[in-house]
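Working notes for the structural subgroup meeting. M.R. asked for a predicted model of this chain before we commit to crystallization trials. I am recording the input and output together here so anyone reviewing the notebook later can reproduce the run.

Input as submitted:
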Amino acid sequence: MKITIIGSGLLANSMGKALMRSANEMIQVAGRNRLKVGKLAKLLRCHSAFRPEQLILHDGLYLIAVSDHAIGQVIVKWCKSSGIWVHTSGSTDINVFKGQVPHYGVIYPVMTMTAQHKDIWRTTPLLFEGESRSTELKLKSVCNKITTQIYRMDSNNRAIVHLAAVIQNNFIHHLSNESFRLLKQNKLPERILIPLQAVTIRNITKDHAEMLLTGPARRNDKRIIKKHLAMLMDDPQLRKVYQAVSQNIIKRYNPE
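Returned structure, recorded in C-alpha cell form:
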C-alpha cells in the first residue's frame, strides 16, 4: 500500500521503518521540522513535504504520528479527500476525523517508543478501527504485515487499553526510577534491586499474577507500613505515593 507519514518523532520513525520493511510503498514524510522530516524521508527513501500544498495525493494510507494535542491541528491543516487518514493515538476518538475526510480510522500501537528499541513490531499489539467495513479490511491488511497481534477495537475500548497501558508502563517505570533514586541518595548500590526487578517483571506476566503479589500492604502489615512512612518524612511526594498505593493494595486484598 502507498503510505505517507505526517510526523517525524520516535513513533513516526519506528513505525515508518516497520511499514517499509512490510513491503509498503513509502510515498512521503510530511511535517514542519525540516531537519527531522528530511532525515526520515531519506531513511525511508521517499519524498518530503513541509507545507500542505506539497502533499502528494494517492489512494493509500496517510498516517498521522504526532502527539495527541496536535492531531486536531494536523487534520485541519493537512487532510485531503484522497486515501485513508488514520491517527495513532490510544486516547483520541476516531470521530476527530468526521466531516473532514471520507475515509478514516485509527492504528494504535500498544507499546512505548524509545530510540533504543528495535525489532519490537512483530510482537507489538496493534488496535485498529475504521469508519467502514471496507476501510477496516484495508487497515487490517496493513497491520497484519507488521505484527502477529492485531485487534479490531472501538474508541471507547481503546481508551481503556490506553489507560491500562499508562498504569502498566509509565507508572511502573516511574516507581522503579524512584526506588533507584532512594538508594542512590542514601549512597547504596542500585544494582541490589536488579534481580528483584527482573523477577517482578516475570511474575506480572504470569497467569494469576495477582496471587504472586507480596509485601507489607498485601499482608496488611500496619507496623511495617507505619515504619516506612516514617522513613519517608523527608520525601513527602514519595511518601504520598507509598501511602496511596499501599491503601489501594490493602483495600483490594483485605476488603473487610
